[in-house]
Structure formats: C-alpha cells, structure tokens
C-alpha cells in the first residue's frame, strides 16, 4: 500500500471508528444549505443509532422517511441512489455506487437494491422541507444475518462557482435490516491470487470474500512470501483495522517494495486473516510463479516494434531518395531539351532578321569550295 493510500485510508478510518453504520456527510462548500435527517420508525432495533437499524419480518413492506430541508434562497435539486454495501480496496465498508467497478458478489442472494425503491430526483424549493420516501419490500423467505445498504443523496447548487463548477453536497444514510437475533459468523474465502507488474514492481493481488450475511470488524492481515521448497520468509507485511461488508469481496494488494521477487521465480504466498472482534482466524497457502514474459514480454515487444519501424523508415527513405534522383534526372533532361529548343529558336530569329546577309554568306561558302589552286 502506498503512502497516499495509507493517508486516505486513515481519513476514512477516522469516521468508521466512531460511526460503524453512519450518517456520513461529504461536502465541497462551507455552510450546508440542505440538511438530511432520517426519521427513525418504531421498529428501530437500536435506538441509539443515527442510521436505520430496523427489525423486519418476511414479506413486510415499509416506507422509510427522510426529512430534507433547504435553508437557502434558491431551489435545490437532489439526486437519490440506493446502493448495496461493499468492501472497497482500502478495506472499509462503502455505501456508494461501485457497480461499474466490481461485479455483484455471488454469495449475495438478496441485496438492498433488490428490495428498496425511491424517486431518482427531487426538487426542493427555497426554505422548504420535504419528506422523501424509500419503499421497502422484504423477501418472502426468512433469513438470518443482515441486509446492508445505503441511501445516497447529492444536492447540487444551480448557480456555478467562479470556476464554473456546480457545488455539491453528498449525504449517505446507512440502512441495516435484520429479522432475527440468530448469530451468524463470517466466513472468508481466498478466491484468487494474481501476480502483476506495475511501474517496475511486482504486486500480488489476493481476492478475499466474506460469503455470509454479516459484517466483519477489526481485521488484521498478515502476508508472507517464501520461495518454493524453502521456509525462509523473504517478504512480509501486516495491515490492521480493516473491515468487510456482508456478502462482499475485496482485494488485498501486496506491493514488492523490497524487490525480492524475480522473473521466472516460484513462490508460496502465506496469508493469515484474523478478526480481533470475533477471534476468528483463516489461513491460506497458495503457490504462484512469475513468468519470464511478465518482465521481458514488453521489452521484447518494444524491440520488435523498433525493428519494424526502422525497416519501414529505411524503406521510405530509399523510396524518397529514388524519387528525388529520378526527378533530378528528368529535370536535367528537360533543361537540356529546353536549351536546344532555345538555341534553334535564336538561330531562326537571326536568319529571319538578316536574310540577304545570310544568302551572301552561303554563296561565299560555295565559291570558296570552287577556288582553283595556282598550280592548276
């Protein structure tokens, strides 16, 4: 994990430590013109929670109420999304829409988006309060564990700022739905181990799945790499205070900062995951190999491209030189022909200008041919 990722993760973790399921507000302007308040119903399971923690029944239908207030002098447009809780790459529970980044987890049979519905857009006039209704319809089959999701509201200021950008406020209200108090334990699976190379460094991506309808807190990852046939650890990392949403997957990325991994090397990846919250431990050992092509493939491809480009450029250069030489030769021929034509033209002009002189010159030449010698 890079320093930038660590800083972002610490910032998000600061919120999650105090509000495990929370009303989370992000804003890009000072002074919130729009406020969002969840109206907690009678079937609120945890009265201390500021989010929806509802005890439901099979086939139950219910309207969740959100009070939205606009204290500004201008109307505001609200965009509303219903999202499933997922686990992001920073190891935290995420209530935003990540459907374009990841696929729905195969273990998720009933999601929050499956049972909830809401208007996608609402306009709130200046100094107006409005109740937004989110309709819930629980599945017929009873279940243990939880359904976890979030209601995301985005308020846009219709007047752009100096840099012509609309100011936005983002509000997220978590929704936790349960039917029983039957305890459910998380279960983790190592789905995939994928070695890649980025910016000259190897990165080992381990995809981990929580296939149960319960969140997992206080997770500690310990990853070790050894060469196959050896017990000596050549690389190790530890990462703490991670979380996982119910029925979700995440990717743990191990960056070879020490550059101990070599092309065509054969290694073993040892991963231990421990939850300090539940005292559960999972261990995996997975073999992987770094092919030669992973490091040299791009280099060989680059050399091939250079050779092809060089041959093409030489061919074009030869063709260009040939055309220039041919053009020069034709130019010389044309200039020679033009000179001969000009010479003949000048000669004709002289004859036309002095015809008598020309005739006399011809006669003189004839006489010279017939002058007898003195001996004759």
From TrEMBL:
- Which residue numbers delimit the WxL Interacting Protein peptidoglycan binding domain? 35-153
Which intervals hold domain WxL Interacting Protein host binding?
170-294
Return any one Pfam family short name.
WxLIP_PGBD
Which UniProt keywords are given for this protein, alphabetically ordered? Membrane, Transmembrane, Transmembrane helix
InterPro entries assigned to the protein according to its UniProt record, in alphabetical order = WxLIP_HBD (IPR021759), WxLIP_PGBD (IPR010317)
**Signal sequence, start to end:** none
Q: Which residues cross the membrane?
A: 302-326
Keyword Transmembrane helix assigned to the entry: answer is: yes
Which parts of this chain are annotated as the region Disordered? 338-376
Q: Where is the composition biased (Basic residues)?
A: 341-352, 363-376
For this entry, the protein name equals Uncharacterized protein
For this protein's source organism, the top of the classification is: Bacteria, Bacillati, Bacillota, Bacilli, Lactobacillales
